[in-house]
Design brief:
With about 325 residues, this protein is mainly beta. The chain folds into three domains: about 80 residues, Sandwich (Immunoglobulin-like), CATH 2.60.40.10; about 80 residues, Immunoglobulin-like; about 100 residues, Immunoglobulin-like (Sandwich). The strands form six sheets. The chain has a five-stranded mixed sheet, with no helix packed on it.
Length: about 325
């Protein structure tokens, strides 16, 4: 029997099919993701440690499923946030970092970021006044500690500063607590605040042509709470084997570079308290202070065939109580 189809039903059915085709067809018009790079620093002296963050990348109609990093030096990574050390021993080098992101439909996009790395020993600090055409001094500032409990006595050493041109005529110090000092490249200062605080210490180095260079360091001074009878914190650290970043063929004129990762997550405070500072002394004159138990990476410059560094971690809790632990780290060419 022949069945007639009413025109109205045919049109309605056709419109329904067309709507479904358009709806499902839209799935094939996938929009590309957007790659974005945030860098913790864009230039500096080798070895330069940079944190690169892709978390601001986005996808308008889906999700990002893959992050691919090319650091421009032969190394790659695939995490959303990465830490990379750039090395350039003999000349200033600009590395082009490329981030490729891929979404859940296979579309991809890229972003790039340039990182400028200067050779070791090129220094920093700004010049001021004097002969604008002559090199300014390079202020070099080291300390024997960067954190401790009050009264905190810190030794400051500016003897490695260089004149740039002419000769160094004076060293001026601003300790950030209202006190200043003049004339000496090596001195001590006592910090004694009423409450825990951080001081920014500034060194000014002047040369005979009237040019100036500066350097700064942060000093944290802890004032403990009244005695509560609670236990002090416990410091604990584990280390990974050193990773060779650069092997020098001209020791001792140019160092080999090794990276070591330190993990303080075994540290803990007494019940009801928390660790506020993780203070690192890497045994090579370098320090770092962190406020969380994140892993810390440090670069060692090895000028000999082998050397053992004594690394100290000191943790301070919210009472101002502290504990320390020591690890030996041996690096060998």
């Amino acid at each position: 029997m022949k069945r007639n189809i009413r025109p109205g039903r045919w049109i309605a059915g056709a419109m329904c099919i067309l709507s479904l085709l358009l709806l499902h067809g839209c799935l094939f018009f996938n929009q590309s993701p957007i790659a974005r790079i945030a860098a913790s620093v864009l230039s500096g002296e080798s070895p330069l440690q940079v944190t690169l963050d892709a978390s601001n990348s986005s996808d308008p109609d889906g999700t990002i499923v893959s992050f691919q990093w090319d650091f421009g030096d032969g190394n790659t990574d695939s995490d959303e946030v990465v830490h990379h050390t750039f090395v350039s021993q003999t000349e200033t080098t600009v590395f082009t970092v490329t981030l490729t992101v891929v979404d859940d439909n296979g579309a991809r996009s890229q972003a790039t970021q340039s990182i400028e790395v200067r050779p070791p020993g090129t220094g920093g600090g700004g010049g001021g006044g004097g002969d604008g055409d002559a090199p300014a001094p390079v202020a070099q500032l080291t300390v024997d500690r960067v954190i401790g409990t009050t009264p905190l006595v810190v030794t400051f050493d500016a003897t490695e500063s260089t004149a740039g041109a002419g000769s160094i005529t004076t060293y001026n110090w601003d300790f950030g607590d209202g006190e200043t000092a003049f004339g000496s490249a090596l001195l001590t200062h006592t910090f004694q605040p009423e409450a825990t605080r951080e001081y920014t210490v500034t060194l000014f180095v002047w040369n005979s042509l009237g040019n100036m260079g500066t350097a700064q360091v942060e000093i944290i001074v802890i004032v403990p709470d009244a005695q509560t009878g609670d236990e002090k914190p416990v410091a604990a650290v584990t280390t990974d084997d050193p990773i060779l970043l650069y092997e020098s063929d001209s020791l001792p004129n140019m160092p080999s570079l090794f990276e070591v990762t330190f993990d303080p997550r075994g540290s803990y405070a007494d019940a009801g308290h928390a660790i506020e500072y993780y203070a690192w002394n890497f045994g090579d004159g370098e320090f770092a202070v962190k406020t969380s138990d994140i892993e810390v990476r440090h670069i060692y410059k090895l000028y000999s065939q082998s050397h053992t560094y004594v690394v100290r971690l000191t943790v301070y809790d919210d009472q101002g109580l502290s504990d320390s632990t020591v690890r030996n780290v041996t690096v060998t060419n």
